[in-house]
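Note to self: keep these together.
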Amino acid sequence: MRAPSSLSDSRGVVGDIRRFLLKAEALPTPKGTALKLMEMAQDPQAAIEAILRVVQSDPALTGFVLRTASSAAFHGRNEGLDLRRSVLRLGLDAIRSHALMLSMVHQQIRTVCPGFDYPGFWLASLHTAILMQMLSKRRPALQISDCFTIGLLGEVGRLAFATAAPEEYGRLLAELHRDGGELAVLERDRFGFDHHELSAVLLADWGIPTTLAEVAYYQADPEGGSFASDSLQHHLAGALQLATCLSRLTLSQASESDHDAAMLRAAILDLPSDAMHEILAASIPELRDWARLVGLPVPQTHPLPLH
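Structure:
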């Protein structure tokens, strides 16, 4: 599949990304159930019964769907749901995103990228998705399925760099660890594009709606995407930037710039500091439960650093 031509390309790098992907010996690759759901998503006439059969064939995905659809974060409705109602509630796009993550999280990488924390990457992705769910409850303009999808897959470009160019990306990560700096800047210097832009092209290739792919593209600079200030994409990009920073502050040794960006974005979203503390505190047990469900190590967390 090709990325839709409507995918914004403010820096003219999509062609460079395409050439990078074509030359790559390996890439994060959807398999099994995820591949079937990607094919079904291309068919507007796909029957709910067919989707149900595919979901039921994957026990991990079934558990994921049931848990997400019954989540208290789903606008406060936490009643028990059967699988059919869960699928109808989430929609095919969100279920496909769950399947994409599950199909890749335990894939055996032929060449491991030095310095890239594979379990840590997926824990951070899950945590960002959980935080996005919780933010959607406080921002009525946001749809929970969109929030979970972009939170879960919005930084998949980092995984793609580590998979497609493991040695070169490993040297970049070592430089970042040794000298500091900003990851996206180092990526642009080394490859000509950053992981946000690479994420957007991959998501578009996987059939994720272009509106969400563009959110991934501009997540580090929501105002740079020329989104209308009251548009869904602008709200999503701002929430994603906030959720990403909050996850870094909780799971890793985040920089002062992450703290400052979180505080600024929260102010723009009219989210007070005590609400951020509440969201972070609620997200940690959720993340631990998800980690056990998916088979990831239960994460260690840092004290909540916001003030």
